[in-house]
Amino acid sequence: MDFETRAIHEGQEPDPTTGAITTPIYLTSTYVQDAVGEHKGYDYSRVANPTRTALQQCLASLESAEHGIAFSSGLGAVTTIMHLLNPGDRVVLIADVYGGVYRMTSQVYEPKGYVFDYLPAADFEDLAEHLDDRTRLVWVETPSNPMLNIVDIEKAATAAHDAGAILAVDNTFATPFLQRPLELGADIVIHSTTKYLGGHSDVVGGFAATNDPTIAERLTFLQKSLGAVPGPLDCWLVLRGIKTLAVRMRQHCQTAHAISGFLERQPRVDQVFYPGLPRHPGHQIAARQMDDFGGMISFTVESEEEAAALVARTKLFKLAESLGGVESLIELPARMTHASTADAPFAAPPNLIRLSVGLESPDDLLLDLEQALVRSVAGAST
């Protein structure tokens, strides 16, 4: 079945009792057993819940995975994956990693003896030279947050495996509609389902998928043992969002193409970061491993002060953290989503603005950015 069909039907058969076409929200903590140890597949909802099972089966299918594990947040998924490691193990991460991941690695796990090295995206071309026999995990975002860097997943997987490490790819920006890292050799794919998969800015969740049965068994055990599980309503909301993922992503991409081109032509914009632009350094790789280039755009202006002023002038682009919803958002990563990396050598530039392009009229969004930039020129001349 094609992607769109699986998004609507995989793991979501009509309810056998009532015929309800929508997966029920199973708001129960425990389940009656026929006898000691004899039940219908469920005994306690931290271990398993039918609504969560539907979500896990559906998302696993979309990521071409045999196994899917849902979590209470994207960072809940990251925390659980970190428990595959032991103190002394080394992790190599893309340098412009999400600020919440950097906060976790630098302030939670590094003091416990874990070793983290942050590699600029350009150095992933020679990833093998940066790995050693202590390296157990390579962590990639592609496109990355917030610089929209691109990493060759297939090449990174080969280098990681040759070094005896596993490759984990955060696929939040691309979604499985545009990119499926497991098909390219990755061992684990991770999502913040809060973003495009939920798609409506009304739920927080995370997800991991794998085709490795040993990794899947361990992550399932850790899901139960650490307890970072999503509630059934959260799972239902993500399932609802996934049904329209393909339609939404097509529009996100189409509008992002128009906006990135517009921004490139603006004299007040210094540089535009969007993998769909031919001059983007990762464009050729992205064109090969993605079906389109996504709905996230970053750009720089002349100064930090101008960036802060610009994000306050837009009307339709709302100033807020997060991304991937139907509404367009604008933010200043250095002060907001990536403030935890402010003192890092790879900190987000203070004059960088990040856009999450929503589903409003493309013409209206372009006019919104145009008026913000025009007022910028007027303000600069006074």
Outline:
The protein has 382 residues and is of the alpha/beta class.
Question: What are the defining features of this structure?
Answer:
single chain, 382 residues, alpha/beta, Aspartate Aminotransferase, domain 2, Aspartate Aminotransferase, domain 1, 7-stranded mixed beta sheet, 5-stranded mixed beta sheet, 12 strands, 15% strand
Structural features, described:
The chain has helices spanning 3-9, 50-62, 74-82, 99-109, 153-162, 175-178, 213-226, 232-242, 245-264, 283-289, 304-313, 362-381, and strands at 67-71, 90-94, 115-119, 135-141, 166-170, 188-192, 206-210, 269-273, 296-301, 318-319, 329-331, 352-356. The protein folds into two domains: 3-242, Aspartate Aminotransferase, domain 2, CATH 3.40.640; 246-381, Aspartate Aminotransferase, domain 1. The longest helix is centred in the middle third of the chain and has 20 residues, at 245-264. Helices cover 36% and strands 15% of the residues. Helix 4 (99-109) links the parallel strand 2 and strand 3. The protein is of the alpha/beta class. It has a seven-stranded mixed beta sheet with strand order 1-7-6-5-4-2-3, with helices on both faces. The mean pLDDT is 95. Helix 1 (3-9) packs antiparallel against helix 2 (50-62). The protein contains twelve helices and twelve strands.
Tell me the Rg in angstroms.
Answer: 21 Å
The CATH architecture of the largest domain can be named as: 3-Layer(aba) Sandwich
- Counting DSSP E segments of at least 2 residues, the number of strands comes to 12
Residue-averaged pLDDT, rounded? 95
Largest sheet: 7 strands, mixed
Structural category: alpha/beta
Number of helical stretches of at least 4 residues: 12
> How far apart lie the N and C ends?
60 Å
Q: What is the fold named in CATH at topology level of the largest domain?
A: Aspartate Aminotransferase, domain 2
Categorize the overall geometry: globular
What percent of the residues sit in helical stretches (DSSP H or I)? 25-40%
Tell me the β content: 15-25%
Q: What's the order of the H and E elements?
A: HHEHEHEEHEHEEHHHEHEHEEEH
What's the structural domain tally? 2
- The unreliable regions are none
Strand order of the largest sheet: 1-7-6-5-4-2-3
Described by its quaternary structure, the protein is single chain
